[in-house]
Please model this.
Amino acid sequence: MTILGRSQLKGSKYRARDCTHSRYGKFECVECAVRDGWVRTLQQGFTLVEVMIVVAIIGILASLAIPIYSDYSVRTKMAEVILAASVCRTTVSEVYLGAVTAPGANNWGCEGTTSQYVTSLTTDDNGAVTLTVTNVAPSVNGRKIWMVPYVSGGPAIIPTNFGDGINEWRCGPTPAGGVDIRFLPASCRN
Model:
């Protein structure tokens, strides 16, 4: 709201002295300014077009953010799936260091471990661990992840590598029915 002063009143029929509440030649009381029509109102609020532009921008940002967040959520759960295999990694590594005979497929002592996101955990003759995923997302449920022990840059083989320490574990989707690589944590993409 703008109240007009003496210079804006020159030549009009109204004078500052017409306001009984005036000082210094200006309308200082809202009642007198409104009564005499000397109030200019400013636009308040937003127009419909401005509101629609803001809503469109928010919609575009949401359409980009939701899929990114969904993939992030799946990768977080997949990290927990990888963590479930840590029991087998320890067991297989110990067998390669100190055993004389191979335990055989699904006899490494860590099979059957399940969690909220793992339906089954199996091992093969050489100690490679296969995890079946569940309760994560429809795109990965029932899919599998492989964790393979490596010695000196190559897959560990029974009995050739007995007594050798496992240098690394490589993780990734199984060749058949594996999890899409974009859902795997960065440490499990090889």
